[in-house]
Amino acid sequence: MALPLAGKHCAVVGATGIIGFSIAKAFAQQGAVLTLLARSAAEARPRLEPQLRPYSLPGTTTTTTTTKDTGDFGVPAAHRFIPLDVADRESIKAIFGARGSSSKPQTGTAVGPIDVLVNCAGITQTSLLMRTSDEHLSDIVDTNLLATILVCKHAKMRPNGCIINVSSLMGTKGGLGATAYAASKAGVIGFTRALCREMASRSIRVNALLPGWVNSSMWTDLKPEIKQAFLKDTPLNRVAEPAEVADAALFLASNGFANNCVLNLDGGLSAA
Ligand SMILES: NC(=O)c1ccc[n+]([C@@H]2O[C@H](COP(=O)([O-])OP(=O)(O)OC[C@H]3O[C@@H](n4cnc5c(N)ncnc54)[C@H](OP(=O)(O)O)[C@@H]3O)[C@@H](O)[C@H]2O)c1
Fold first, then answer.
1. Is the shortest distance between the CB of 38 and ligand 1 below 6 Å?
2. Ligand 1 centre from 13 Cα, in Å?
3. 241 Cβ below 6 A of ligand 1
């Protein structure tokens, strides 16, 4: 039986992170060929690539490990790791290779046509508004929200494709020390809903995923008393494993009727 993402080209921005890589790994497991993007993509490659199921062309048993590009309008022949700093707007435009862009890069560094795009790059905030520098506030909004908007603008999505924007429960629920973060993630939800209307003519589905706390550095870096308070408010009394978030992303990517889904995955914390 064909795997649900067999032959699909999936691009994950923020793929070196704990959640982004879990999603990339789950998609590769289901037959996809991956483009993994992040600032440290090249350095992380030796560690991450062996964990990905090698890509094989649908209908064959031939797995490919060479990073060969089949051209601007083809599907990559193997998983690729492409360095990208989403703070650099010109790089987003160049790497996603928007048609007609004067800054189109050499074949091999362009992402090319995409079936599933995951926007998962994010930075956090753990300080009260008055104690957060203007520069950090701007970085949070630029990385979490503006970059998501620009990547979606410049990505060459194939008809019937799917975009998954990783937001956060904080986008719908307050959180101490997370003002700009919450605003950026709320923005991602609003953007997702509006983009869903604009992508309708090409049957591209657009969804947002809202994890609560996930077993990651964002969680482990919290003070013990803050963790205790969150756990007390979470009916399941635990945080999510990254693989559980990846499973939700797989649902959004593979269920053809999932569109404008704003999917909470928070163990019930949103009910508190
Ligand atoms: N962990 C949680 O509890 C939790 C809960 C809800 C939502 N989320 C959201 O889930 C997403 C992933 O979180 P995570 O826990 O996996 O965080 P993480 O491990 O810190 O990963 C963050 C990812 O974003 C990338 N990134 C950051 N700044 C970037 C930039 N300027 N350009 C390109 N890539 C950049 C990082 O790669 P490089 O450093 O290599 O660039 C990394 O791949 C974030 O959007 C976060 O807000 C997380």
1. yes
2. 9
3. no
Q: Which residue has the tokens 């009910």?
A: 271
Q: Measured between alpha carbons, how far is 154 from 167 in angstroms, rounded to an integer?
A: 20
> Which residue is listed with tokens 């990547």?
151
Give the Cα separation of 4 and 27 in Å (integer): 9
Check if 181 is active-site: yes
Active-site option among 181, 184, 195, 212: 181
SS (H, E, C) 21-52: HHHHHHHHHCCCEEEEEECCHHHHHHHHHHHC
Q: How far apart are CA 252 and CA 258, in angstroms?
A: 6
Q: What is the DSSP letter of 199?
A: T
Indicate whether residue 47 lines ligand 1 (CB < 6 A). no
* Rounded-to-integer distance, Cα 23 and Cα 237, Å: 24
Token readout for 8 is: 């699909």
CA dihedral over 179, 184, 185, 186, signed as positive or negative:
positive
Task: Kindly state if the Cβ of 18 falls inside 6 Å of ligand 1.
Answer: yes
Whether the CB-CB separation of 9 and 28 falls below 8 Å is answered with: no
> 9-271 has which fold?
Rossmann fold (3.40.50)
The predicted pLDDT at position 72 comes to 43
- Which band of pLDDT confidence, cut at 50, 70 and 90, is reported for residue 107? low
pLDDT tens digits for range 25-42: 999 999 999 999 999 999
Model confidence at 62, pLDDT cuts 50, 70, 90, reads low
Q: Residue 63's pLDDT band (boundaries 50, 70, 90)?
A: low
Query: Distance, CA 216 to ligand 1 centroid (Å)?
Result: 10
The kind and range of the H/E element at 18 are helix 18-29
